[in-house]
């Protein structure tokens, strides 16, 4: 009997689109769920909305023992979730719950290390362990849900709030996490000095949620401008982030090739541009802002830079180069969750 | 090199105790996490607290294709989470997030069925799908996180709020879910009529979170009594629930053998008492209340019944029989998550 498509045949994007049909309209549009007064019923309208986000990290899909210790896995699981809160406009987390699944033969020492890594991230970036569940299973995984709240003085950051004319800002360099993975896999990387290798490994294992960038965003808002910021995090890559913003905002994103936020450690590497655009897991924020606000933010936040702009939607697609126009080609081997 | 104990060697109880050390003191004491004003920072103190709960359902651990269809799996995953919200005193859910993990060869039809089952439960008991994540993995599983809030007129239900002299009340009969599992596994069940088989199967596949019982609890509170209710849900079995309440409240729970809340369908089955006490997954609430409140609740809520009381802690343990005293023996083959 024909059963229709499998998840691998659908692919992650189409799967998420179909799952979104079980949620209220628009609920799946952003990095995380915004819980406004309407969803929370009796809460006073002036109370800052809550933000809820779930991310799952699966062994041999998102991490492997070859490239990460237990504490790195825990740190990353928490950091990835908190990064999504930052991408929604939160400046910190209330805390998180963790569903741990692992085979019965898993050493307690591994679980202890993973929770210590989560606790280390929470200790330095805010939030506490709130609760969770655990179960046996064939494969180690952590499903983490983080709860945050918008600051009283700042609104939400939504993917669809961009407009033609907005400037695109990246809060930091890209490609270093992918470089770290290459180091850990023993790929050939000519002329990469030892200090650069160490920085790249650390960036891959210990990403940092950019709550500081959200605080700088709030502090740099020109008094004349209302709150309107589009953005998402770059966990799936800089190009994907810019493209998502553009699609949700019904614009095209033009990136300036000469202003690509290449990590300094990528200098001399053949894959530098590919890894900057498509490497993923840098967990920076990609924002679309009015030019005056963008300028103030770049001035105030070290490492933040101008990377392009939003324009009216172009017939050839949501993502292109400023120089010469035309789409940015995506690499052939994109990461697939359902392999 | 010795790595110390494995998760199977620790067992679930000791694992949760150790994981609780990574959370603030007391944070792991209840069925779910209570987020009061202190955790949420700037929220007004009078605002009803939020409740957050995570439960994971793993294929071949919590469910199997032999006993449940996809829609049953989704329903149960959502119901188990909402039951924990009810056990904390919520009368409904804001909604939930879902982390879906499944092999790439999983048919979309199975995932669609599971989400339809969740949507059906939410549609009839309140709450919406808020967000989530998905990933490939070796085994199907759903890690669900539910968010609820306490009603304005009702306080929290906590495991540790019981006192000697409290009456134990069960909101319904026990053992029918385990009976349903026996039917589905084809175990020998003499003299079980067809209608009873159907009710047992339905109880196993489609448990209901007892938000209605929490509403009745609030409505039946005698005006002279302040809010103080201890309780938890009976997902791990009636005896385990009573024992947890007793331990957290530093009491001993005495169950009355002649008042055991045996499901009517268990009549004539040799395992009736065992399944009532230890079968699990009935998702009723077990509450400890002042006698006057307990009496009013039993009068108001159909199916609720007096099952025993809390007394001063006894040297032989937290759980015993009213008749004759002495501990209730636990069966040899308890369910183990890390088997």
Question: Which descriptors would you attach to this protein?
Answer:
homodimer, alpha+beta, 60s Ribosomal Protein L30, Chain: A, Phosphoribosyl-aminoimidazole Synthetase, Chain A, domain 2, 6-stranded mixed β-sheet, 5-stranded mixed β-sheet, 11 strands, 32% helix, globular, ATP-binding (chains A, B), nucleotide-binding (chains A, B), ThiL-like (chains A, B)
Structural summary, described in words:
Two copies of one chain form a homodimer. The longest helix of chain A is centred in the first third of the chain and has 18 residues, at 70-87. Chain A has ten helices and eleven strands. In chain A, helix 3 (70-87) runs parallel beside helix 4 and helix 5 crosses helix 6. In chain A, the strands form two sheets. Chain A has a six-stranded mixed sheet, sandwiched between helices. With 339 residues, the first copy, chain A, is an alpha+beta fold. Chain A has helices at 7-10, 12-20, 70-87, 108-125, 176-184, 194-205, 211-219, 238-248, 272-278, 291-300; strands at residues 33-35, 50-58, 93-102, 128-136, 141-149, 167-170, 230-233, 252-255, 285-289, 305-311, 319-321. The mean pLDDT of chain A is 92. At the A-B interface, helix 1, helix 2, strand 2, strand 3 and helix 4 of A face helix 1, helix 2, strand 2, strand 3 and helix 4 of B. Chains A, B: Mg(2+) 2 binds at residues 55, 84.
């Amino acid at each position: 009997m024909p059963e229709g498509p499998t998840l691998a045949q659908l692919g992650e994007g189409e799967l998420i689109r179909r799952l979104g049909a079980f949620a209220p309209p628009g609920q799946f549009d952003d990095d995380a769920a915004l819980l406004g007064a309407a969803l929370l019923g009796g809460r006073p309208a002036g109370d800052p909305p809550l933000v809820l986000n779930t991310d799952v990290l699966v062994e041999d899909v998102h991490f492997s023992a070859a490239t990460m210790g237990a504490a790195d896995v825990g740190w990353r699981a928490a950091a990835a979730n908190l990064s999504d809160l930052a991408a929604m406009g939160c400046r910190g987390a209330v805390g998180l719950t963790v569903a741990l699944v692992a085979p019965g033969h898993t050493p307690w020492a591994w679980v202890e290390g993973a929770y210590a890594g989560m606790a280390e991230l929470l200790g330095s970036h805010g939030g506490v362990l709130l609760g969770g569940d655990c179960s046996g299973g064939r494969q180690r995984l952590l499903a983490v849900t983080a709860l945050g709240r918008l600051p009283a003085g700042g609104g939400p950051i939504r993917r669809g709030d961009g407009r033609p004319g907005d400037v695109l800002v990246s809060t930091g360099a890209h490609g270093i996490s992918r470089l770290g993975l290459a180091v850990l896999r023993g790929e050939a990387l000519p002329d990469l000095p030892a200090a650069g290798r160490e920085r790249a490994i650390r960036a891959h294992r210990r990403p940092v949620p950019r709550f500081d960038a959200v605080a700088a965003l709030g502090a740099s808002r020109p008094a004349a401008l209302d709150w309107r910021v589009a953005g998402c995090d770059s966990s799936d890559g800089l190009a994907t982030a810019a493209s998502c913003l553009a699609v949700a905002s019904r614009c095209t994103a033009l990136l300036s090739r000469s202003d690509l936020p290449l990590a300094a450690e990528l200098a001399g590497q053949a894959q530098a541009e590919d890894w900057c655009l498509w490497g993923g897991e840098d967990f920076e924020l990609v924002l679309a802002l009015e030019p005056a606000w963008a300028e103030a933010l770049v001035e105030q936040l070290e490492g933040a830079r101008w990377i392009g702009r939003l324009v009216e939607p172009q017939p050839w697609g949501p993502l292109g180069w400023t120089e010469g126009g035309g789409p940015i080609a995506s690499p052939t081997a994109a990461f697939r969750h359902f392999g």
